[in-house]
Predict the 3D structure of the following.
Amino acid sequence: MLKDAIKNALNEQVNAELYSSYLYLSMCSYFKKINLEGFATWMEVQALEEMTHAMKFFNFISERGEQVKLTKIDGPETSWASPLAAFEAVYAHEVKVTGLINNLVDIAIEHKDHATANLLQWFIAEQVEEETSADAVVQKLKLVGNDGGGLLLIDQELGRRVFVPPPGTTIMGGAGKGQA
Ligand code: FEO
């Protein structure tokens, strides 16, 4: 059983994580269109990671004996002025998500829901990583500026990203039990 306030807030976060996945998938398509395949790969992996975040909340709600209420997902932006503008948008989005997670922690504490607070600890650490990795790309893009060669080097580097489900998460059923 979950208190209604917690259940509703967690349901909203499922939607927010799915929106994040949508946003990065949209950016993936944008980068494919401008022939930056490495950037596109990075975004595809990011979109998959966001799915695992959504499923982590989805599975938690189910484990607590509640039904997940899926709601309409807003359509994300479809174009950005430059790769830098896109990654600045990634960073800004992750800062926003961090705010959502912090707000969820406040709600969990207010309702003395320690299990939910415990789940959220994982996301707090994850958000630090998400903000750091997005900002690292922003800084590199600022460094190379309009240098096409530098951009292609970053494209190569980002293209090496491989999807590895974060520990304790899964896209396929279950609750990721037994995973590290
Ligand atoms: Fe699910 Fe990028 O935070």
